[in-house]
Each structure stands twice: as C-alpha cells, then as structure tokens.
C-alpha cells in the first residue's frame, strides 16, 4: 500500500482493513508524486480508533531510492534526532491511549536502524539496558550517553537468587 491511490481513497481503504482486522502501515520513506499520503496526525487519529498501529522507517534517501548500485543503498539513511521526534510523539500517544505501536526501523547492514531504534527508546524513557560494543558509538557519535557501552560505566544489575526469608 505505497501508491497514492490508497490514501486518495483512505476511508474506503480503512474500512477494508478494519473488516480484515488489519491496520494501515505508515511508511516513512522519500515522498514522490505517486507516494501514499500520510501524516503524523493521521497516525494518532488512527490509534484512537484502532487497538494497534504499525510504522516502518525506511529512511529518506531520495537520491538513491530509484537509482542505486546495490539494493541496500536505497535504505542507507540515518535519521537525525529532529526527524525522529514525530515517531517519538506517536509512540507516546499510543502509550497514553493504551494502544500498541509496532515501530520498525529498516535493517540496513551498516547499523543505522540499530542506532535510530536506540535513540527512539532513550527518548521514550526506555533505554536499552544491554551494553553495546564501543565501535557502535565510534561509528554513531550521537549515541554517546544514549546507550551503555561494554566495559564502560556501571555494570548491569545482577540477578539475585530468591532466598527464603525465614
């Protein structure tokens, strides 16, 4: 459902999806004339009417979307902090409404999705607790202070065995 004709007939498309127990997939990707029309405020509106929503972050690499040497070049994109803000807002709205949000970052081989997912989780107050290799922060400096680096800072909490209080 990436063609604009779906969003041009949005009400009818939503009725079909609702009848099937499915949800609209909000796709963040470069926008072209034929692209499906989507807006963050519509995502929140749909969350109000449905129990769950699905968002995919494909990146905004318009220069290599159609013209690329390797297929993975299309998705070679690292979102800037300000570009992630609408998705943080949508996730917060989903939580406030008691709805489930599935937010997927495209799995690019260079780790862009991992970096962006860690940024989103941290901004939602749910940072990833497992330590990452230092090389990830070396490659993505914006993760400094966002993720825990293996061998640096406090160790993860130990799980203690339950003991009998008597």
Describe the structure.
The protein is α/β, with parallel strands linked by helices and 166 residues long. It has a single domain (4-143), classed as TIM Barrel (Alpha-Beta Barrel), CATH 3.20.20.410. The chain has helices at residues 4-8, 10-19, 40-49, 81-97, 112-123, 134-139, and strands at 25-28, 52-57, 100-105. Helix 4 (81-97) links the parallel strand 2 and strand 3. Helix 3 (40-49) packs parallel to helix 4 and helix 4 packs across helix 5 (112-123).
What's this, in brief?
With 166 residues, the protein is α/β, with parallel strands linked by helices.
First and last CA, distance = 61 Å
Percent helix, as a range, is 25-40%
Poorly predicted ranges: 155-161
Whole-number tally of structural domains: 1
CATH architecture: Alpha-Beta Barrel
According to CATH, what is the topology?
A: TIM Barrel
Provide mean pLDDT, rounded.
Answer: 86
- Assigned CATH superfamily: Protein of unknown function UPF0759
The description of the largest β-sheet is:
3 strands, parallel
Notable features of this structure?
166 residues, three-stranded parallel β-sheet, TIM Barrel, flat, alpha/beta
How are the SSEs ordered, and which strands pair?
Elements lengths: L3 H5 L1 H10 L5 E4 L11 H10 L2 E6 L23 H17 L2 E6 L6 H12 L10 H6 L27
Parallel strand pairs: 1-2, 2-3
